[in-house]
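Format notes (please read before filing issues)

Several people have asked whether sequences and structure tokens are stored in separate files. They are not. Every record keeps both together, in the order shown below: the sequence lines, then the token lines. Line labels are part of the format and must not be stripped during preprocessing.
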Amino acid sequence: MTYSSGRLSLVAGLAVLVVLGVVIELIRQRKLHERYALLWILTGVVMLVLAVWRGALYALADATGVAYPPSALYMVAGLFVLIVLLHYSTVLSRLSDQNKTLAQRLALLESKVRESETPVSEGRRRAPWRAARPESASRSRRG
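Then the structure lines:
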């Protein structure tokens, strides 16, 4: 069987349509943000164009020196996957830095709260919201 039979174009086109459908469904269910889905949608559109428009696929294969045009289709898919992985790596790095900063700020806030709640007997001022009750108020509640 040769590539010119069209069966490979049909299978590749259907596979790309399924992937695009899954991406759109994930966006609809709010499991994938639009800004991250753009790369997947762009990948799907380019792959669909190359799968359906054989002339473009043959031109790409000739330009890159690939002897078998469907291999050029896989090459383009691999390139887009690498781009998506690089994008996600940068997002993950940024989130890791933000998480570290957030943890440090939380630790500082917890330290300040502990300092403000230290009892008067340890030589520190009691927090205003923890003011000691007068002795007469505590007796009146007991009985």
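For reference, the curators noted about this record: Residues 14 and 134 are 79 Å apart (CA to CA). Residues 3-116 form one domain.
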